[in-house]
Amino acid sequence: MKLSFAKMHGCGNDYIYFDCFHQKIEDPAGLSRNLSRQHFGIGGDGIILIGPSDTADAQMRIFNKDGSEGKMCGNGIRCTAKFLYDTGLVPKETMTIDTLSGIKTLRLSVKDGKTELVTVDMGPAEFRPEKIPVLIPGSEVIGSLLEVGGKERRITCVSMGNPHCVIFGDDPDTIDLEREGTAVAASPIFPEGVNVEFIHLAGRNTLKMRVWERGSGETLACGTGACAAACAAVRNGLCEKGEEILVHLTGGDLRIRMTDETVWMTGGATLVFTGEVEI
Questions:
Q1: Taking the complete model, does pTM exceed 0.70, yes or no?
Q2: Which is the catalytic residue, given 20, 222, 227, 231?
Q3: Is the dihedral of CA 209, 213, 217, 220 positive or negative?
Q4: Is 213 annotated as a binding residue?
């Protein structure tokens, strides 16, 4: 059986995209594990299935490289919007996409019939511990101490439809990300796992970030993580609410704006190549 796919990335966060309007995917978890391997498959952070929805213009399902299903991916949903518009499946410059974290509205910036930038209404940030979830008492986890492996860290926990643990400190390039990220993510206070963002305040409303994603390890970018980092920075008094916050990720830049009602994310989406894979 042959399947058509598109390889796309947002700030280097790359997935293999499948049009499920016109083809059926069997065992998406196994497919993601097999195809995401860099040297033995197509390579990527996982696969994304794009198909019809009864409640939105389209549906997006995300499977990480370990086969686990994700609820939301900020970089992935921008690429999904570009795929839908550029292929003519959804010829709208404002569209809705159904995810496991709810329906998201996206606004596309189009030039010569191709999508260049996408702004996503990511919904409001959630700080209540039981909604993240994180097993720390209180109404919020803002700058709380967490001891892991004999080392204390101050963490801020937030959900953007998936759980995030944000840690502010020195230049994240100096961190052993695999060791530090794994240690924090393995803490029993995160019953569903967690994405871990290491953040440095690089200037006014400017953040530098590296991320350890559950199910994938280090990725070059994480859209929901950039949103979580910006919101955590606002709540810790490091950045300004209502103003654009520039987040430098390893794979590129995203622009985030947190308001009382929602979080806006703007960034690019790139088609790398298309092809067919025999299963």
A1: yes
A2: 222
A3: negative
A4: yes
